[in-house]
Fold this sequence. Notes:
Elements: E1 2-5, H1 12-19, E2 24-27, H2 29-47, H3 69-83, E3 87-90, H4 93-107, H5 116-128, E4 131-132, E5 135-137, H6 146-153, E6 161-164, E7 167-170, H7 171-178, H8 189-194, H9 198-228
Parallel strand pairs: 1-2
Antiparallel strand pairs: 3-5, 4-6, 6-7
Helix pairs in contact: 1-4, 1-9, 3-6, 4-5, 4-9
Amino acid sequence: MTYIIKGAGLTIEDVVNVARHNEKVELHPDAVEGIIKCREMLERKIEAHEIMYGVNTGIGEFSEVVLNDDQVKDFQKYLIYNHAAGIGDPMPIEYVRGAMLGRINVHAHGNSGCRLTITQTLVDMLNKGVTPWVCQKGSVGASGDLAPMSQIALLLMGEGQAYYEGELYDGKEAMERAGIPIPGLQARDGLATINGSNVLTAMSAIFLVDANNWIKQAEIGAAMSLEALKANMKPYT
Length: 237
């Protein structure tokens, strides 16, 4: 089954099916149009030297620092380097895939300002089974899962590491083996890829589905035990 991503209507079951069961995804034509229109607007504003947070300014405490044209080109790369840190064991692949799906769904709203090739590369990575290697610990959740999402974003520059067909490779090699072009990062692309709580959201969706299944199993097990023991059912009625 292929899930059509349009920025709305994605259920927790959909997330699990893509993250855990490797279902395919595709951008809705309206989502594609919205992403392109937003990017065109952003580029017009960049050419006009309009001040935009995280595009031609720094972020956080450096939000009032205005970047020149050369700095704008490099800022997104260094933004990812600055945040791509973590500790602990590798994050389960299904969590990373779920986070990527969540980010694609955000981009599909047409408000993120990234190039279409960034979103489409994430789609291709999901569909072809390229999953970034991400540390389990590192996110503080302040303005999003910046650390783990940055480790995902490294692949967009051909860096980091990723799983492909059961093996762990350097990011560039994993992308090449899957036949996915590396888009690189331009203005806004990096921030648009990392600024959201997509890892926590993916984990929550998976936990909810699993917890619901565990509850059902517990109820069935309890009912079978009561039946086998010929229990007094009055307390349950």
